[in-house]
Design a protein that fits this description.
single chain, about 450 residues, alpha+beta, 2-methylcitrate dehydratase PrpD, 60s Ribosomal Protein L30, Chain: A, two-stranded antiparallel ribbon, MmgE/PrpD family protein, MmgE_PrpD_C, MmgE_PrpD_N, MmgE/PrpD_sf_1
């Protein structure tokens, strides 16, 4: 889209609607189901953030925040999550989003082909440092604003550009919107912040990271950094509007249901800390293993059919945690050998499991037109397992668990949170954090009950 076209197509009505939603939305105007879902997404993401804190990428991200994003102004500083050291608002958001992004167990949204909570949760925690009286319902309203704005920005970007960009390219707008709300900015400041955030958002190419997995992951650390920086720049008079993904006329349909359709209720929860594209095949293999009596060492061949992006995931035995989280055959093999996939399987000795390596070598992947036609709205796969006794077990078409198609209930989300949080935080701290987060839906709750569990180092 040319700069001339952007100027001619600017859509003031869409921005006015977005500004009113972002800055004036009352917590009471949000459906109870959306507020309850927001609390569960907050809990789920905090569990992953805590578990990721000791991982190398998290340690490096926090170190970089200290070196590069320190602040001498207490009004623009915050503690890093599960660390406690003080850096700038942008640095603290970057550090938490980077460590969360590098343990790929956080929520996502099918239409965006990416993730929102990974930046929205750090943004809330960072901004709340300066809001000691922040109520639980208002905290959830701000979080929901982040999800709703970022999600639509992501859909608008995917609909108007040819290549596939990481979540950092668009979730930056959600962070800017949250900051505008919680820092009580004006509509004019919000407009400039969204323009700055979109302009500087990291339009990194996702498939480069898929081909060679690294700590870059989905670009969300930089998305959080840019979004928070954009809000502070706009607050201080820096200009940057308009944001094309908001104000261009051709994206208006993607914003038309703002405040009516609640995207927060349609996020998926990941049962496994690996790329969502692998989950349908993992679940297909899991269900075959649960339904038939066979041992992993009796498997002669595994055939996986899925959508195009899924079969482009890392094809061989990984030697790093980053590669393990983006490897389809490794994830399926781990499920068949171990019966589940946890942090210990995608790191350390889990990367050298000889039984898993043997199955990876016996795996064939195929792109399926049937599964491709349903992507990204659905994440489908089917798996065939050939056994040494000649049996061929076929899963049939399987959709990944945890999303609207096969949702997890409250108890399942809490159980998943505890499986990650308890080893990192200990039983008492993990339970205290869980209770405080789930209580945010109550009228008299305050976010400081959550905050007291967030900043002490592990």
């Amino acid at each position: 889209m040319s700069s001339k076209a952007v100027a001619l197509d600017a859509n003031a009505d869409t921005f006015a609607t977005l500004a009113d939603f972002t800055l004036e939305l009352s917590p009471e105007a949000i459906p109870a189901s959306a507020r309850e879902r927001a609390a569960l997404m907050l809990l789920d993401t905090l569990g992953i953030c805590a578990a990721a804190a000791p991982m190398e990428a998290g340690v490096l991200g926090r170190r970089a925040a200290l070196l590069l994003h320190a602040s001498s102004d207490p009004g623009h500083s915050a503690r890093m999550l599960f660390d406690g050291r003080i850096v700038s608002l942008a640095g603290a958001a970057y550090a938490a989003a980077t460590q969360t992004d590098n343990l790929d167990g956080h929520d996502g949204y099918n239409p965006t082909k990416g993730h929102i909570g990974v930046v929205a949760v750090p943004a809330l925690a960072v901004l709340a440092e300066h809001l000691p009286d922040l109520s639980g319902p208002e905290a959830l309203a701000a979080l929901i604003v982040g999800y709703e704005v970022a999600g639509r920005a992501g859909i608008a970007l995917h609909a108007t550009v040819s290549d596939y960009h990481t979540s950092g390219a668009w979730n930056t707008l959600g962070v800017a919107a949250m900051a505008a709300r919680l820092r009580r900015q004006t509509p004019a400041m919000l407009r400039e912040a969204l323009g700055i955030a979109e302009y500087h958002g990291p339009r990194s190419q996702m498939m480069r990271e898929i081909a060679t997995p690294t700590m870059l992951h989905d670009g969300s650390g930089w998305g959080a950094l840019v979004g928070m920086s954009a809000a502070i720049l706009a607050e201080n008079g820096f200009t940057g509007a308009p944001a094309i993904t908001v104000e261009a006329a051709n994206v208006a349909p993607h914003w038309a249901d703002l405040g009516r359709f609640w995207q927060i209720e349609h996020q998926y929860v990941k049962p496994y800390p690996v790329c969502r594209w692998a989950h349908a095949a993992i679940d297909a293999a899991r269900e075959l293993a649960l339904g038939h009596a066979f041992a992993a060492d009796h498997i002669e061949k595994i055939r996986i059919r899925s959508f195009d992006y899924a079969v482009q995931l890392f094809p061989t035995m990984p030697d790093t945690t980053s590669k393990a989280q983006y490897s389809l055959p490794f994830a399926v093999a781990t499920m068949l050998v171990q019966g589940h996939i946890g942090l210990d399987h995608i790191s350390g000795e889990g990367l050298a499991d000889p039984k898993v390596a043997a199955l990876v070598g016996r795996t064939v992947m195929e792109a399926s037109e049937r599964h491709q036609a349903r992507f990204p709205a659905g994440r489908w796969a089917d798996v065939e397992i050939t056994l040494a006794d000649g049996r061929v077990l076929a899963s049939g078409d399987t959709h990944a668990r945890g999303g609207p198609e096969r949702p997890f209930g409250r108890d399942e989300v809490v159980a998943k949170y505890k499986s990650f949080a308890v080893p990192a935080l200990g039983e008492a701290r993990a339970q205290g954090l869980c209770d405080a987060v789930l209580a945010l839906t109550e009228a008299g709750s305050r976010f400081d009950a959550v905050a007291r569990h967030l900043y002490d180092p592990l």
